[in-house]
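Database export, one record per block. Field names are fixed; values are copied verbatim from the stored entry.
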Amino acid sequence: MQSRSLTFLAGFFACGVVVWFTQRCGPSEPAEGRRRKDSSADSSQVRGVLHSVGQAPPHSRIVLLTGAGGFVGYHTAQALHARGDVVIGLDNFNHYYTVKLKRERERLLRKAAQSGPALNVVEGDVCDGELLKLLLREGRVTNVIHLAAQAGVRYSLKNPLAYVEANVKCFVTLLEAVNQVNKSIPIVYASSSSVYGLNTDIPFSETHRVDTQASLYGATKKSNENIAHVYHHLHGLRLTGLRFFTVYGPLGRPDMAYFSFTEAILAGKQITEYRKDDGTELQRDFTYVSDIVGGIIASMDLGASLEVFNLGNTHPEKVSRLISLLERGLGRRANKTLAPISAGDVPITFADASHARSLLGYEPKVSLEEGVSRFLDWYSTYYGVAMGRRHVTSRRMQNHEEVPARRPGGGAFRSERLLRQRAGSQHEGGRKHRQRAAMERLHPQLL
């Protein structure tokens, strides 16, 4: 008993040291991952946003969406706007990856905002409690979707304190702000499949114990779930955590494998496929972004008191299959090398989504083949890169082969011939015209 007490006190002391160090010294990190010190929101911008929101009808749903300039946040903002919700986005536009892509998402959101309900993005920090309270109170916020975070498993090995600040400190700051302004506002927040860590029970279920994370990123996401439980217990806050499984799609994150592999294959550079020491291939439950967004919005509509849901495709795929699909779509062979699984990685992710299916009506619809095709269509038009898919496909057509791919709405199959015809039409016209047209039609077709 005495030993357990000493262990608890040691752990408590260690946590205190980490928090003290973070507050006193701040993270020491390279520029690309640094949280911007000048990210406090411009007061005139905030006033303009609040004025815009003030024009909304009295009973409008008004959503505070953090991470609106991010990959999933952008697609979520578009979907909320399309269905008539007012959106107050918040993002600090940090330099974890190229800000240019984040600004492009912001541009597309501004374009969407030219019609329909108010859709704005405030450039500010989720760790700014006063800003959060102002937006919550004066913006008459009815729902919060918290997607802002420091992402990436491998990067957490290089810059651990950035994860403590962004994923823990900012999360608590948000909960404190909601608790002080209006504790009845339901909050949906992003957790991660990384919370399952070294779990060997397949598929991963919300009922499994998750005490063995394999990365600091996973540990910070598990801490979010623990903190959510505490704030529900102490203050009655309504919180729903969503464990995302390997999200991919257009306007995605360049640090993700499907994106970085595409860049490397086109440049003729070597890519690394990680495997277990015994040669076993890694598998991931690749989930297309529109399926994830559907689960996010359904969770917001449910407004549960305290919940956690898996959101995955429920169909793990080998990473080698992802590479093969990219090779076929690009019409080029990858220069591939094999390496042992890296620290922080796990051999497989596999979502049991029965809980989300039961309470949210969640049903993933986009196969990996269809999703990769959509991503490459976007990549081709955005970067002005010619794809070799028509040349690859022509040989299959000569043999009258058809590759089934699930429709975005599920149900019947359609042939690769139709997919390629659609892709071919997107390459007509000049580069600028193709790029703008592709970005403008990205919604609502993808969601």
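Remark 1: The chain has two domains: 28-249+288-311, 257-283+315-349+366-445.
Remark 2: The CA atoms of residues 276 and 284 lie 14 Å apart.
End of record.
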